[in-house]
Amino acid sequence: MIQQHVNLKPYNTFGIEVYAAGFARFSTITELKTILESNPFTQLLILGGGSNLLLTKDYDGLVLKNEIQGFTILEDASENVIIEAGAGEIWHEFVMKCIENGYAGVENLSLIPGSVGASPMQNIGAYGVEIKDIFHHLKAYHIASGEIHTFDKEECHFGYRESVFKNIYKGQYIICSVAFELSKSPKINTSYGAIETELKAKNILEPTIRDVSNAVISIRQSKLPDPKVIGNAGSFFKNPVVDEMIVQKIQENFPDVPNYPASEGKRKLAAGWLIEQAGWKGKTIETYGVHKLQALVLVNYGGSTGKQVYDLSTQIIESIEEKFGVTLEREVNIL
User: Fold this and answer.
1) How far is CA 326 from CA 65, 235, 247, in A?
2) Tens of pLDDT along 301-328?
3) Phi, psi for 142 (deg, rounded to 5)
4) Is 119 part of any domain?
5) By CB distance 3.0 to 4.6 Å, which of 18, 115, 159, 275 could disulfide with 49?
């Protein structure tokens, strides 16, 4: 059941070739328990879609591919519905299934790569919506005890691309399923100007959730490279949240710097804009670089190592620190 010395290139969207000492798939909790009982390795890595990961070296442990499926209606009320999805479901396919059934809330999160199980770990978000806005609960396997624990929204401590599964519980749980509370009476969210622009271009004045989804898909396809064509992990950096004073200082030289309200006394800057101003957009070094249409995306054109991409990200961080006095944080998990 556990394979030895497996190439992980097919299992990460960056397309980086590294090897795992051990590799196994599971599609049920019973299979997961059986694998862990016979696991000879001390290190453990859980893979979903491999879309938020940069592999910089071989992995001297067991890589587990989560393939738990499922789309179950737990509660069906007059206004809302609670749907539980298996952690191994492909996120975009889950979104499409919700839209097909007329369940609103996830349409702004269309075409985000990865799996359902990874969505609460990162508190994924796009175009004005985050997982925490629709999250109900999740079930996770506690590796030490073999028990299934349930976490509600408060227990997940969601933050900007953060949750307890990325910090205090990192490596302690394997997410098995996630439940979302969606609406049967759509509240269309077109607060991001790009969506409104796309809808107006198509002369759509009263958009449905499918219209919003199609708009988001069109925007993402126009700006972001397809991982099946060019290796990447989507946005590599988080948008930095900084003190208002730092924004004011940047505005002295760059009065048009994009910035948005965050918490009290804080503003959020656009990391892509900062990277572009520092001259990195479209820069190519051998077989890797920064995407020509979106400076937030680092790419592997083929044959690059994870260390090369990581070193590039370090250079970008250092240049933004020097030019703007702002420290970028990697959104992608580094291994």
Assistant:
1) 36, 18, 10
2) 999 999 999 999 999 999 999 999 999 9
3) -85, 110
4) yes
5) 115
Q: Does the residue 241 lie in any domain?
A: yes
Is 225 among the domain residues?
A: no
Q: Which of 334, 335, 332 is nearest to 161 (CA)?
A: 332
Catalytic site positions: 161, 235, 331
Say if residues 278 and 290 touch (Cβ distance below 8 Å): no
Decide if 99 contacts 87 (C-beta within 8 A).
Answer: no
Q: Are residues 86 and 54 in the same domain?
A: no
What is the average pLDDT across 254-281? 91
DSSP label at 9? G
Looking at the structure of the chain, the number of domains it has is: 3
- SS3 of residue 290 by DSSP: strand
C-alpha 320/C-alpha 245 separation (Å) is: 17
Residues 139 and 163 in one domain: yes
Sheet holding 231-235, edge to edge: 231-235, 297-300, 288-290, 284-285
Q: Which tokens go with 177?
A: 């399923």
From the number of C-beta atoms within 10 Å of its C-beta (0-12, 13-18, 19+), residue 151 rates as buried
41 DSSP 8-state letter = -
CA 290 remoteness from chain centre: 18
- The token pair that represents 56 in the structure block: 């910089």
Q: How many CB atoms lie within 10 A of CB 152?
A: 11
Query: Are residues 90 and 50 both part of a single domain?
Result: no
**Structure-block tokens of residue 102:** 């007329």
**Domain shared by 302 and 240, yes or no:** yes
Residue type, 71: F
Which pLDDT score, from 0 to 100, does residue 190 have? 81
Query: In the predicted model, what is the mean pLDDT of the chain?
Result: 93
Q: What's the confidence (pLDDT) of residue 48?
A: 84
DSSP line for 101-143:
TT-BSSGGGTT--SBTTHHHHHT-EETTEEGGGTEEEEEEEET
Which domain covers residue 315, as residue numbers? 231-334
Asked which of 51, 66, 81 is the last residue of a domain, the reply is 66
Are 160 and 62 contained in the same domain?
Answer: no
pLDDT for residue 249:
92
